[in-house]
# Entry
Amino acid sequence: MKFSTRNCTAIITGASSGLGAEFARQLARDAQVLILVARRLDAMESVKAELLSLKADLKVELVVADLSTDAGRAALVSWVDHATVKPNLLINNAGLGDYGSFASASEDRLKRQIDVNVSALVLLSRALLPVLMQTAPAGILNVSSLASTLPMPDLAVYAASKSFVSSFSEALAIELEPHQIQVTYVCPGPTPTNFSKTAKRDDGTDTNRDGQGLLRIPASQVIAESLAALNSGKTCLFPGLGVSIAAPIFWHMPRSLLRWVLRRRHSQSKL
Ligand SMILES: NC(=O)c1ccc[n+]([C@@H]2O[C@H](COP(=O)([O-])OP(=O)(O)OC[C@H]3O[C@@H](n4cnc5c(N)ncnc54)[C@H](OP(=O)(O)O)[C@@H]3O)[C@@H](O)[C@H]2O)c1
# Structure
């Protein structure tokens, strides 16, 4: 039997804004229960009010958890253990970046990126796997990034963390197929959300945005394509025309040429 979001019970991490909130809006039509997870309760309450205005009989649960910590992840897992409804979809969407050089990065922001983008995604997938196996056909949707396809100076740890997500998801898709768990990962390009605001440092350091206009699409399109990919059993998605063209170019470009392009872009952004 194939996984479908119809009548699903979904956990969405990072559902207080951006892509996570949009996942919730677009799943509201099909889902029975949405379990929103993030640190900011007030922002999730606003999303919940919006969801209930779209569908009054939707069940929306809010779980406040800092997924960068063992305690926060354990709180979510314990919530699921004690809940009467069990999820059959896990959307690992929470994530953050940090614009600027590695040399000037704060240890705290480096660690938080790895804790949320990598550790939370892996450990929640593992901890919730028994439940997903029970409720199969089930799904895991991991939010990676176009940044997973190439090294990014001044966004080095973020891009590497998303490379991890893509590689991990490819392997998991094969391992979990016999258990009727569909694993899909999506690699969006630049998308207007709160991502940039969070990624900017206190000194105002920004990222190099040259060429981003060709890749940018609205969050609504990223999520519509992502859910379509999940429902059609696709493993990997590069949403939008620009991103779907850019990704194979980055992949197939000789490493020496890619290094030359990246070095040039990096030195120009310092002028
Ligand atoms: N926007 C882009 O250009 C873009 C492109 C490619 C990939 N992505 C990926 O898309 C995903 C969603 O990001 P977004 O663009 O929607 O950015 P966003 O608007 O900043 O949303 C990030 C979400 O992650 C949550 N989050 C961050 N740290 C957390 C923590 N420690 N514990 C629990 N939740 C946490 C935030 O909630 P709280 O602050 O309430 O905790 C928020 O809901 C990320 O994985 C990002 O890497 C974004």
The longest strand covers residues 33-38. The chain has a mean pLDDT of 96.
